[in-house]
Amino acid sequence: MSCVQCKESASFKEYRHKNVVCLLGDIRIARGYYHCKHCGHGHFPWDGVLRLSERALTLGAEEIVTLGGSLDAFGTVAKRTLPKMSGLKLSESTVQRTTEDAGKRLAEQLQAGKTFGQKTVWDWHIDANGKTCAYLSVDATGVMMQGPEGAKADGRMAYVGMIFNPQPRQTEDERLSRPCDGVRYLAGHYTLAELGEQMRRQAAQVGVGQATQWIALTDAGSGLEHWIDMYFPLAIKIVDFHHASEYLENLAKVYRSDAEGKTLTDEWCHRLKHEGGAVMLKELQGLDLRRLSKAARKMYDAALTYFTNHVGRMNYPEYLSNGWHIGSGGVESACKTVVNQRLCLGGMRWCEAGSDHVCHLRALYRSDPDQWEAYWGYPDYAMAA
Ligand SMILES: [Zn+2]
Questions:
Q1: Distance of CA 336 to CAs 100, 339, 342, 343, Å?
Q2: Can you give the pLDDT at residue 380?
Q3: How many angstroms separate the alpha carbon of residue 105 from the centre of ligand 1?
Q4: d(CA 250, ligand 1 centre) in Å
Q5: Ligand 1 center to residue 6 CA distance, Å?
Q6: Ligand 1: distance of its center to the CA of 13 in Å?
Q7: Span from the CA of 114 to the centroid of ligand 1 (angstroms)
Q8: Mean of per-residue pLDDT scores for the chain
Q9: Which of 58, 113, 127, 212 is the most exposed place for a label (fewest CB within 10 A)?
Q10: What is the 50 CA–ligand 1 centroid distance (Å)?
């Protein structure tokens, strides 16, 4: 047996016992202890083979504890879910630390440039012109934070990025509700630069480069347009249709009375969809502003600014005739399913590291199932599935 420290030969000393938590509960194992007289280092080779965690959980136990901690509150998992599903009785803090450690390792591996599983080129769907299309999207959502010793702290934004292969739209009014044929999420308290690097690696691993057309859907939030230019310069940028319509709706409601406001909203949204952002911008510029209240003027200015800044990414008639998706509903729902559903329940507050680690795990779990499997070391999942 060679020493793990200095590679000289280490000799067997004795068997030593250790209490270990496996999927079936607590067990006691005896494993050989080896000592190296060159550097004085002692080690247990069998611990490495079993991939025992720092808290003496086997890999199988660590995985289900982490899965539990990723899906529900640590206390609930410790008291109810784990005992019921596996018979494991662990403290809340063991569930929390095990989950956060796994998330930390995941974050470090992603940061170091690792991707999980085999490179596979997705079967990108084709648009109305026969071009294969790869979609990407990014959005941000808030997580409540807690300072040291329960002190109040500002919330932190978590970014959620996704690479996806949505099914082609069947009708013009369809929102993105059908499951995607391929989805990868990333989530965490990233800087946009970190997210960009990691998104590119995920994109490369699923063959975004093989798709003819890249489409980036966002709500045009702060910094996102520039981010797309930096990391996905070939992507056509589309502003989420529903965000653009919301500006029109807010304005229509104060520009006209109730019923008329509704009619005007429909009229404007229809125009935006079928004649595009440039036509709608012209209409806004031509509105009679003399009767506008102060509040209405504010809505008008907001709409005008949004349309002026993003008109080049609101060519909806063209996008629709190409058969492209025009809504960022996918990433908005990902903010909820990946982040909010676990991290924003009932006044939950997090420390930044813990929140970041759980975000990463949840993004991994909500991605195509091969991702979680590959991270936990089931190499044949893709072939078996
Ligand atoms: Zn040694």
A1: 20, 6, 9, 9
A2: 54
A3: 26
A4: 71
A5: 4
A6: 14
A7: 30
A8: 91
A9: 113
A10: 22
CA–centroid distance, 19 to ligand 1, in Å, is 26
Whole-number Å distance, alpha carbon 11 to ligand 1 midpoint, is 10
Instruction: Judge whether 155 and 144 are in contact, CB under 8 Å.
Output: yes
Q: At what angle do helices 59-71 and 352-366 cross, to 10 degrees?
A: 100
Average pLDDT for 116-124: 93
3-state secondary structure of 22: strand
How far apart are the CA of 106 and the centre of ligand 1, in A?
Answer: 30
Q: What is the DSSP letter of 313?
A: G
Which residues, listed in sequence order, are joined to residue 14 by a DSSP beta bridge?
Answer: 33
Q: Classify 144 as helix, strand or coil.
A: coil
CA of 39 to the centre of ligand 1 (A): 4
pLDDT of residue 177: 67
For the stretch 131-187, pLDDT in tens is 999 999 999 988 888 877 777 778 889 999 999 999 887 776 666 567 889 999 999
Determine the distance separating the centroid of ligand 1 and the alpha carbon of 52, expressed in angstroms: 22
- In the structure encoding, which two tokens stand for residue 30, read together? 């005896």
Topology of domain 133-240+327-380, CATH: Nucleotidyltransferase; domain 5 (3.30.420)
* Token pair listed for 8: 């000289």
How far away, in angstroms, is 44 Cα from ligand 1 center? 13
User: What is the per-residue pLDDT for 383?
Assistant: 44
The answer to whether 113 and 202 are in contact (CB under 8 A) is no
Instruction: Report domain extents, the chain.
Output: 1-52, 58-114, 133-240+327-380, 242-313
Compute the average pLDDT of residues 195-202: 97
pLDDT of residue 178: 75
Find the 8 Cα to ligand 1 centroid distance in Å.
5
